[in-house]
Amino acid sequence: DNSLLRQVSSLVRRLPAMESEKFQDEFL
Amino acid sequence: MDAERRQAELIEQFSAQAAALSSAPQLAALVLEATSHPALFAFSELLTLPALSKLTGTQYASSLDLLRLFAYGTLKDYKSNSCTLPALLPDQVRKLKQLSVLTLAESTKVLPYDKLMQELDVSNVRELEDFLINECMYSGIVRGKLDQLRRCFEVQFAAGRDLTPGQLNNMIETLSDWLGTSDGLLHQIQEKIKWADATSEVNKKHQKEFEDRVEEAKKSI
Amino acid sequence: EEQVVVIREKLAELYESEQQWSKAAQMLSGIDLDSGIRMLDDTNKLSKCVQIARLYLEDDDAVNAEAFINKASFLVTNSNQEVLNLQYRVCYARILDLKRKFLEAAVRYYGISQIEQRQIGDEEIDENALEQALSAAVTCTILAGAGPQRSRVLATLYKDERCSKLKIYPILQKVYLERILRKPEIDAFAEELKPHQKALLPDKSTVLDRAMIEHNLLSATRSTYFCSFDELGTLLGIDPRKAEKIASRMICEDRMRGSIDQVEAVIHFEDDSEGLQQWDQQIAGLCQAVNDILDSMSSKGI
To answer: Which chains contact C through at least 3 pairs of Cβ atoms less than 8 Å apart?
Structure first.
C-alpha cells in the first residue's frame, strides 16, 4: 500500500525527534 | 495524515480518469494535469497503472519519464535530463521544488540555506524563505522553523514521498533499530523499578531494625 | 406633560422619516421617562431607551447611544419582550464595535447570529440578518488585538460551518491558521470594513493596519526563530523602528513570546525553554503519527 508506505516513510524521517544545535545544548 | 487522505481522493480520481482514457495524447494530458495539481505529491499509484503503459514507445513516452521523475526525482535530476524531458510549466516547476525539499528533508532535519538555494535554483534568501513559508509550510507538506541566524531550515515534519525500491530496507532497518532501542529502554526502566523497590525494602527493614534497637535501649535504661 | 410628550414623539417620527436620526433621538431623549406624573411601565421605558439608542446608532453616535443602552440594561433583565431584548442586544454589539472593543463586540455578534427562532413576536428573523451578524463577528475578531483571547474566539468561528460560506472566510482561515497576510488580501478585506474600522489611531496608523501588523508579527513567530528589525519591517510593510515598537509592546503585554536585542537589532521569537518544550511536542507528534498509521492499517484490514 503506497499510501501507508509514504506515511511510514514520513514517520521514520521524524527520528530522532529533535536534532538542532540549540536543542543539543539544552538537552545536555 | 490529512495531506495523505486528501491525496488518496485525488489519486483515486486520476486513476479512474486514466482507466477511462485510451489514447496516448489523452494520457499525456492527464500526466500533465497530475504533475501540475497543487495538492498531489504522490505518483507511484499512477505509475503502476496498466493504462499508462500505453505511453511507452510513443512520442509521448517522455511523459512517463516525467511522471517517474515527479515520483522519485528532484529539480536537480530534471535539469540534468532536461533535453530528454518535456518542458515544465510554472506549476510543475513549483511542485518539483516542493518535492525536492521533501527529498532533502529525508536525509537531514537541518537544511542549510545555501544547499536549499542551490537545489531549488533560488538566488536569494528572501525568495527562499517566501517559498519555504508559502509553498511548503502553508501547503502542509512540511512543518518547521527558519533560523535566520544560523541560516538553516529546521524540519519538524515532512510528508513522505514515493519510495524507491532501495529505500524499503533502510526503513525496515530504522524501524527495527527504533524498536530495539525502545525495548532496551523499557527493559532498563523495569530493572530500575525493581532496583528501586528492592532498595526501598532494604531501607524499610534497616529503619525498623534501628527503631527496634532504640526501643530496646530505652527499655533497658 | 402628556401633550409635550405627544408633540415630541410626532416630531421624532417626522425627523425619522427625513432620516435625521440624531435629531429624532434628541427629540425623544427630552421625554422624562421617570416623571412622577406619567407612570410608564418598565417595558415602555426600555422600548424608548432602545429606540433612542438605535436612532443615535444610525448616525454612528456611540457615545449618546451608549448612555441610553446603559439605562436600558437596568430594565432588560426583567423584560420578557423578546423583540426588545433582541434589539437591545444588537445595539449593545454595535456600540462595542463603534467603540473599537472588537473582541467583546465579536462575542455579542456571534451570540446574535446563533438565534434559532425565525419569528420573534411580530418580527421575522431574516437569514441574511443572521449572516450579517456572523460576518460582523468575524470582522471584529480579525480586527481585535492578537493574543490568546482572540485565538479562542477565532477557533470558535473557524469551526462553525456557517462561516465557510461567508465571503470573508478565506481571510478568517488565514488568520486562524496564523499565516502571514499579504497586501492584496488585506486590501480586499479593507473594502468590507466600515469607516470606524478604518479610523486613524493616535500613532497615525489605522485600526486595520495595527491589527494586520500584529497578526503578521505573530504569524512570523510560527515560522521563524529570529528576525532582524529590517527584515521585520519589510515583512510588515512598515518602518523597522515602528516594527520594533509594536513587537516590544506585544511582548510587554504578554501577547507574544520573545526578546529584543537592540544592540544587534534583532527579535528572538522564543524564550530559553523552547527547545525542550518543542522536543515534547515532537515526541507527541511522533506518537500521534504512529497511531494514525495503525488506524490506517486496521481500516485497510491489515
So the answer is: A, B
Tell me, what's the ipTM?
0.84
Partner A contacted by B45 (CB < 8 A)? yes
Q: What share of chain C is helix, strand, coil (3-state, %, to 5)?
A: 70, 5, 25
Residues of C within 8 A of B148 (CB-CB) are 224-228, 231
Q: CA-CA distances (angstroms) from residue B56 to B27, B60, C138, C213, C276?
A: 11, 8, 54, 54, 53
Contacts of B167 in chain A (CB under 8 A): 9
Q: Cβ contacts (< 8 Å) between A5 and chain C: which residues?
A: none
User: Distance between CA atoms of C178 and C243, rounded to whole angstroms?
Assistant: 18
Give buried/exposed letters for B178-214 (b at 16+ CB in 10 A, else e). Answer: eeeeeeeeeeeeeeeeeeeeeeeeeeeeeeeeeeeee
Q: What is the mean pLDDT of residues C236-255?
A: 87
Q: pLDDT, tens digit, for every residue of B184-214?
A: 999 999 999 999 999 999 999 999 999 999 9
Contact list, A3 vs chain B (CB under 8 Å): 4, 7-8, 11, 42
Contact across the interface for B174 and A20, Cβ inside 8 Å:
no
Per the document, the length of chain C is 302
What does the alpha-carbon distance between residue B158 and residue B144 come to, in Å, rounded to a whole number? Answer: 9
First to last CA, chain C: 87
Q: What is the pTM of this model?
A: 0.79
Q: Does B124 touch chain C (CB under 8 A)?
A: no
- For residue range A1-28, list pLDDT tens digits in order: 899 999 999 999 998 888 777 788 888 8
Q: Is the Cβ pair C283, A17 closer than 8 Å?
A: yes
> Cβ of B2 under 8 Å from any chain C Cβ?
no
Shortest distance, CA B171 to any CA of chain A (angstroms): 7
Q: Which of A6, A20, A21 sits opposite B162 (nearest CB)?
A: A6
- Cell numbers 527529498 correspond to B103
List Cα–Cα distances, B147 to A15, B41, B164, in angstroms: 20, 26, 31
The helix or strand, by DSSP H or E, that contains position C123, with its residue range, turns out to be: strand C123-124
pLDDT in tens, C31-76: 888 776 667 788 888 999 999 999 999 999 999 999 999 999 988 8
